[in-house]
Amino acid sequence: MPAKIPATVVTGFLGAGKTTLIRHMLQNADGKKIALIINEFGDLGVDGDILKGCGDEVCTEDDIVELSNGCICCTVADDFIPTMEALLAREDKPDHIVIETSGLALPQPLVRAFNWPGISTKVTVDGVVTVVDGRAVHDGQFAHNVAAVDAQRAQDENLDHETPLSELFEDQVACADMIVVNKTDLLAASEAETLTSKLKSESRDGVQVVKATMGALPVDVLLGQGISAEDDLAARHEIHHHHHHDDDEDGHHHDHEHGHGHDEFESFIVTRGEIANVNAFAEQVADVIRANSILRLKGFVAIEGKPMRLTLQAVGPRVDTYFDQPFGDAPRETRLVVIGEAGLDHAAITTALQA
């Protein structure tokens, strides 16, 4: 049975920075062949033009499909499924599929569509990424230009025009496996920290909340989450009841001292000798990840008495291991790459992983 192709769903309101995030991903895809499905309506299909210059080795024009006749979640059977089937039937299959939903589509019905008989055996939802405009959400607005979001909603007769934006926002957050707080360069460091903590406390366990500027996320962090979201729909139910948060307790006395530089990401390598016990080591890795807010950890492990090297991949505290190939002439050592937001304590993490 060939492995299922992973698909990442990117959602978020108009203006949150979904296209910028995707453009950055394509420019840094590192040879990964990515197919893109963009769901926009009416005259808003500018994303396709922006993305068509994305470099042939990553995605050619054939790899970009625009669905412009209304919201993807309402036209699943007529529009989305045939598009997916056509993509999956190709000779040169993509390594990864990225679906950018329209800013007002709820991600839940789209994730549900991956259980459709024609495609459920061939593709899986790697993860749902919700992009939020950090400045707007901090100010209780949810979108930088609320009028533009409402105009977009008015154009599509399939959409629910009554639900307040705050509730749509909660549904997008409820479905997310990763929340990208974009535009953090427009927030003071303390404001960004407060907002990410608030979003983390309001989302399911295991959801990663990361800060970004101009959608610049490492591809390793964005893709390869391995969640299989379609198997876990009950946990991502649409909320549709009102929470009345006092969104802006500090009464708007923002004196915009902007955070310094970009909240960038960093990675470093930790090496150690052979490991005696795989399970104990996997638990140790999970503990280190939890204690240090590490986003990804991956590498190869040498196990005493085993000729094969063990591949280890962790997304947050979820650690997967499998033996992939013999070490051969390569040195029998354990090499792990640690990826996280800038400011990781290299010394403490190294000591804990080598313990």
- Round the mean pLDDT to the nearest integer and report it: 78
Examine the coordinates and then state which fold CATH places here, giving the name of the CATH topology of the largest domain. Rossmann fold
* Total DSSP E strands: 12
Helix content: 25-40%
Query: Biggest sheet: strands, sense, closure?
Result: 7 strands, parallel
Name of the CATH class of the largest domain: Alpha Beta
Output the CATH homologous superfamily of the largest domain: P-loop containing nucleotide triphosphate hydrolases
Cα distance, first to last residue? 39 Å
Just name the CATH architecture of the largest domain.
3-Layer(aba) Sandwich
Strand proportion, as a percent range, falls in 15-25%
Cα-based radius of gyration, to the nearest Å:
21 Å
Tally of domains:
2
Low-pLDDT runs of 5+ residues are: 41-46, 68-74, 240-263
Q: Helical segment tally?
A: 12
Described by the principal axes of the CA atoms, the overall outline is globular
The H-and-E topology, N to C, reads as EHEHEHEHHEHHHEHEHEHEEEEH
Summing up helix and strand content along with how strands pair, one would put the structural category as alpha/beta
Which strand order does the major sheet show?
3-2-4-1-5-6-7
